[in-house]
Amino acid sequence: MLPFVVDAASYVISLITLLAIRAPLQDPPAARTGRLRHDIAVGVRFVWADRCLRALSLVSAAVSLLTAGIPLVFIVLATHLRASPTLIGVILGISGAGGLLGAALAPYLVRTVAAGVLNLAGLWLWTGLILAMAMIGTAVVLGPVAAGFAVVGPALAVVAQTRRARLVPRHLLGRVYSVNILISRGTAPLGSLLAGLLLSSVGPSTTVVILGAGLGVVALAATASPTIRHADLPETTTSH
User: Fold this and answer.
1) Which of 1, 19, 172, 183 is such that its CA lies 20 to 30 A from the CA of 62?
2) What confidence tens digit (pLDDT) does each residue in 98-144 have?
3) Nearest 5 degrees, angle CA 9-CA 152-CA 221?
4) Does 190 reside within a domain?
5) What is the pTM of this model?
6) Is residue 25 part of a domain?
């Protein structure tokens, strides 16, 4: 029961922090068209018309496909290395700490590192960490690897969210965001399925090699793309 109670408490804390936000997050609602398909089409057209948003969404879809099953890979690989349930919990806890560190570092990184460089560095770092998992001989080392993997995510998320907030007119944010999430994260369930199939058929070591190689291909394609390389954040917020 305890893990579920703690998880539920975390959502209560999240709710309280959301209620504490005082800044206006959107313009007064405009007249609604009442047509869901029209709203979806507006979001799709906006994302597809912006070359950078389109490219980042497609790259994110590929990344989600290859990384969504990584938590499962950590658990199976740790079990394969004869880690106890307690040690597996510690490894996942260290991963959570890495995520908090990444969230703390994200604003500084976004201010000091060009968005395109940050995106590419995150992709290559993830690729290296996944491939490194194939050479790990003891479960203890999985903790730092998991933390390193978790540090990158918040920085990339902040870049994506900031770009949307600065580029997209506020009255379109909901529609554009929902379309972007559908494209970039819609492959995550397939990614979990892919990881499960690979783990059950070829084992954890080969699985991380396949996933790492696939992510390397995505990172290479992103590096070769001028749109991704120069995907820097707009300077001002669009308000019209």
Assistant:
1) 172
2) 989 988 888 888 888 888 888 899 999 999 999 999 898 899 999 99
3) 135
4) yes
5) 0.79
6) no
